[in-house]
Design goal:
Its EC number is 4.1.1.23. It holds the Pfam family OMPdecase. This is Orotidine 5'-phosphate decarboxylase. It catalyses: orotidine 5'-phosphate + H(+) = UMP + CO2. The protein has 12 helices and 10 strands. It has an 8-stranded parallel beta barrel with strand order 1-2-3-4-5-8-9-10, surrounded by 5 helices. A two-stranded antiparallel ribbon has the order 6-7. It has one domain: Alpha-Beta Barrel (TIM Barrel). It binds orotidine-5'-monophosphate. Orotidine-5'-monophosphate binds next to strand 10.
Amino acid sequence: MRTFGERLSDAVGARGPLCVGIDPHVPLLAKWGLPDSPEGLARFTDAVVDALAGSVAVLKPQLAFYERHGSRGLAVLEDAVPRARAAGALVLLDAKRGDIGSTMDAYADYLRPDHPLAIDAMTVSPFLGPDSLQPAVDTAREFGGGLFVLARTSNPDAGTLQHAVVGERTVAQAVVDTVGGWNAADGSGSFGVVVGATLAEMDVDLDRLGGPVLAPGLGAQGGSVADVRRLFGAGVRVLPSVSRDVLAAGPDPAALRAAADRWAAELAG
Ligand SMILES: O=C(O)c1cc(=O)[nH]c(=O)n1[C@@H]1O[C@H](COP(=O)(O)O)[C@@H](O)[C@H]1O
């Protein structure tokens, strides 16, 4: 079995590091001429998958926009995720789950191949304590999945909690160090952190992470490729992530591809 870290390396090597988020906001549905309904959601999602799953390394559906349509919204994802993976994209479910360990074990089932969604990796929240995430780490190891743990997020007031000092480290650094420990233990590089591309300055040390960094915030939140370069050193595997800025180019598939290609080309340049 190949680990998520290995599969991510291959995907980034072949396709570049760009991650495109699938965030079907109501204003975007309207801009695309689609209704705010499960049908509209399906047409939006299918269009993004058809346009981009054959070319970008990672697609990141935002679960919130599917859950708001209940079971019919989840059915849209259950249909789209296998097609995205079959076209060669890794699917990172943006779920931001976190709970006591015994419940976390159930959330981690998203990573099992027999789950109706069966994704490659998911975002998780560490704020119940590092040990609470251990069941998800175990499931990821068992099935070759990946986790991205919120460490230093892109929202403006993220530092309010993430800069709090515990012992001699910030909370954000404690998260990064915990995830680095998981990677050091198995060498898989399957465990990543989330660090926004919007930070004024890099205030966590990623040197011993040993895994990928998801860097959301490009475009709509003001982050740029220059910010990605400024914040992250060459030794870090960064997945710059953009949602609305690419999605706003739809529904024309060629325009969606062109928007993603522009970011990919700028990142490669
Ligand atoms: O985990 C995430 O992906 C995430 C973490 C973070 O710190 N900031 C952040 O914006 N995100 C997600 O990334 C996406 C950003 O969307 P855009 O601002 O439209 O590019 C949303 O789905 C957010 O929930």
